[in-house]
């Protein structure tokens, strides 16, 4: 679930400083039924994504990992898995199968940051803990989930003019809540998951109707607690909430207030679909921490000009987002970034789908041939090679296309007719036709050889840039940027020998030198870090050695891919422009 975005605040202690804690995950399958392949999946190995595994016995986001397999608790429909984890913050979800299409849809009430991605989250401390929930819900089966939130940004206990400071304005044990839902007997801890000074927790209640509660700056009545007198109060100093829905999220009102600390800002998002030949009839959705990573919010194109828009009211802060076609057509680039300030309404410029830049001309469709060799991987009996990407529907994994090796030479291939996407993203995978046993590429292709684009927290996607209607193809060794080194349909996959791009870093000019393998038509393109083609030159029919010079004053500072193409295969070189 690659589309899935994970913006994480690292709260992990050094491995040598604390011991691992037993964390028991319980999920009730009453609404779904028995399962023989239920998994708990998360960032259990490297929760802060610094390439230093805090829990090396586990894997990050591997839906069929044996370590995450859950087992039935006696004869009930409660399934359990216990993991030994270092203290810190973790994101996870349950998968009723061996692949992402079988993952649960989690209500936004208990997903990351309420309107964040579709993952659950848990804070692991030094003491053993457990997490119990109904599959696909935010509480145990039959209970209502309520997310209680309070904004502590204006709570200035030490009167230094800066509110909500941990350990100064906020009690060292954190903010708590007490109320009628626990018969006023338990101080339930809240968490400030991302340091935005909004503290929150999810509670479970047995029915709809009113509950009374208040927030306490500490773990007991001896500490500062609220005295509510506004419209959200019960008349006795407590907050009152009338629960009418199965899942409820409260506004993040200010401490001891029935109003927001900061007024929201109107933000307009726009995406231009005119250069995408994808079917937009399912609609375009805005996904991310601005909306919801699982369901998103629908955009509109009322005038039919190809630009889809939506306006949201957002509180000041940092956000991440992407656009998606229908339920599966994710953008293949990394998450888009947005900072909202209280300076007034924001209208973001229209960006091209799958790009951070305005749209260029539409590229006509062409046949695309995908070829891959397993490399160091040995295919088990029944396993085959697959390709998936933003051109496979309904989404990457569930729309994956099976390749074939009819001649048994070890190179698996498929030709996809009339692909319309100009800059397409894709990956290969090894697996059985039923999806029960698979290996997906996980290399950071932008770093190991420039055959892909950075995908933020997730491993990179491969990228293929088409510029015309000529058939084009790629041939790679699985999980590498190494060419298959075999003869493709009509040309050698290695376009040229001795390809050099210098100086690197480049300052004023960029020199490209190569020896053409055959007499063939070649094209040079320069692609920026978000997949936008910023330079293109058709070299015509070329043979022998060639030298090309490009003025780098045309480019902004950053990392670029220089792509040499013969219309069927590409060779990429990464270069830094000062």
Describe the protein.
The protein is an all-beta fold and 578 residues long. It folds into five domains: 114 residues, Immunoglobulins (Immunoglobulin-like, Sandwich); 106 residues, Sandwich (Immunoglobulin-like), CATH 2.60.40.10; 75 residues, Immunoglobulin-like (Sandwich), CATH 2.60.40; 128 residues, Immunoglobulins (Immunoglobulin-like, Sandwich); 86 residues, Immunoglobulin-like (Sandwich). Helix content is 1%, strand content 40%. It has one helix and 37 strands. The strands form nine sheets. Strands 25, 26, 28, 29, 30 and 31 form a six-stranded antiparallel β-sheet that branches. A hairpin with a 6-residue loop joins strand 33 and strand 34. The longest helix is centred in the C-terminal third of the chain and has 4 residues. The radius of gyration is 27 Å and the shape is globular. The N terminus is likely disordered.
Secondary-structure blueprint:
Blueprint: E1 21-28, E2 38-42, E3 71-72, E4 78-85, E5 88-96, E6 120-124, E7 129-134, E8 144-151, E9 176-179, E10 188-189, E11 198-205, E12 209-216, E13 239-243, E14 247-249, E15 265-272, E16 284-288, E17 297-298, E18 307-314, E19 317-325, E20 329-330, E21 336-340, E22 346-347, E23 351-352, E24 366-373, E25 384-389, E26 401-402, E27 412-419, E28 423-431, E29 438-440, H1 445-448, E30 452-453, E31 461-465, E32 472-477, E33 496-502, E34 509-527, E35 533-551, E36 558-565, E37 570-577
Parallel strand pairs: 1-7, 8-14, 15-22, 15-23, 24-32
Antiparallel strand pairs: 1-4, 2-5, 3-4, 5-6, 8-11, 9-10, 9-12, 12-13, 15-18, 16-17, 16-19, 19-20, 19-21, 24-27, 25-26, 25-28, 28-29, 28-31, 30-31, 33-34, 34-35, 34-36, 36-37
């Amino acid at each position: 679930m690659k589309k899935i975005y994970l913006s994480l605040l690292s709260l992990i202690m050094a491995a040598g400083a604390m011991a691992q804690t037993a964390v028991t995950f319980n999920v009730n399958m009453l609404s779904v039924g028995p399962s023989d392949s239920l998994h708990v999946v998360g960032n259990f190995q490297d929760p802060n994504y610094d390439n230093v595994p805090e829990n090396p016995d586990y894997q990050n986001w591997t839906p069929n990992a044996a370590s995450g397999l859950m087992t039935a608790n006696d004869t009930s429909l409660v399934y359990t898995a216990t993991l030994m984890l270092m203290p810190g913050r973790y994101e996870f979800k349950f998968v009723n199968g061996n692949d992402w299409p079988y993952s649960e849809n989690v209500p936004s009430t208990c997903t990351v940051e309420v309107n964040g991605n579709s993952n659950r989250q848990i804070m692991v401390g030094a003491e053993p803990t457990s997490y119990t929930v109904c599959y696909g819900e935010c509480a145990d089966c039959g209970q209502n989930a309520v997310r209680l939130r309070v904004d502590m940004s204006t709570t200035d206990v030490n009167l230094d003019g800066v509110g909500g400071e941990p350990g100064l304005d906020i009690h060292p044990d954190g903010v708590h809540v007490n109320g009628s839902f626990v018969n006023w007997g338990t101080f339930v801890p809240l968490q400030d998951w991302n340091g935005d000074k909004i503290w929150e927790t999810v509670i479970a209640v047995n029915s709809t109707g009113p509950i009374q509660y208040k927030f306490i700056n500490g773990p007991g009545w001896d500490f500062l607690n609220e005295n509510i007198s506004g419209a959200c109060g019960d008349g006795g100093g407590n907050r009152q909430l009338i629960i009418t829905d199965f899942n409820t999220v409260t506004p993040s009102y200010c401490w001891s207030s029935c109003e927001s600390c900061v007024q929201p800002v109107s933000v307009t998002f726009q995406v231009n679909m005119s250069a995408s030949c994808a079917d937009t009839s399912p609609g375009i959705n805005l996904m991310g921490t601005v909306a919801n990573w699982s369901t998103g919010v629908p955009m509109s194109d009322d005038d039919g000009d190809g630009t889809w828009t939506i306006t949201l009211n957002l509180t000041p802060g940092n956000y991440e987002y992407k656009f998606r076609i229908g339920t599966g057509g994710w953008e293949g680039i990394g998450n888009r970034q947005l900072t909202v300030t209280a300076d007034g309404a924001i209208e973001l410029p229209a960006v091209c789908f799958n790009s951070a830049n305005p749209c260029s001309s539409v590229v006509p469709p062409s046949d695309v041939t995908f070829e891959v060799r397993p490399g160091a991987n040995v295919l088990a009996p029944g396993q085959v090679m697959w390709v998936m990407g933003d051109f496979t529907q309904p989404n990457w994994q569930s729309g994956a296309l099976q390749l074939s090796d009819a001649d048994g030479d070890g190179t698996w291939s498929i030709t996809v007719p009339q692909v319309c996407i100009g800059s397409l993203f894709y990956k290969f995978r090894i697996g059985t036709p039923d999806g029960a046993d698979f290996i997906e590429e996980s290399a950071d292709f932008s770093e190991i050889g420039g055959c892909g684009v950075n995908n933020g927290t997730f491993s990179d996607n491969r990228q293929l840039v088409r510029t015309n209607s000529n058939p084009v193809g790629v041939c790679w060794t699985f999980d590498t940027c190494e060419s298959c080194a075999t003869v493709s349909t009509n040309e050698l996959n290695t376009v040229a020998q001795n390809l050099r791009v210098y100086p690197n870093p480049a300052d004023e000019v960029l020199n490209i030198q190569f020896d053409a393998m055959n007499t063939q038509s070649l094209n040079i393109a320069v692609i920026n870090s978000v997949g936008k083609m910023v330079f293109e030159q058709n070299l015509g029919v070329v043979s022998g050695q060639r030298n090309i010079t490009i003025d780098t004053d045309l480019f902004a500072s950053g990392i670029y891919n220089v792509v040499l193409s013969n219309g069927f295969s590409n060779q990429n070189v990464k270069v830094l422009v000062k």
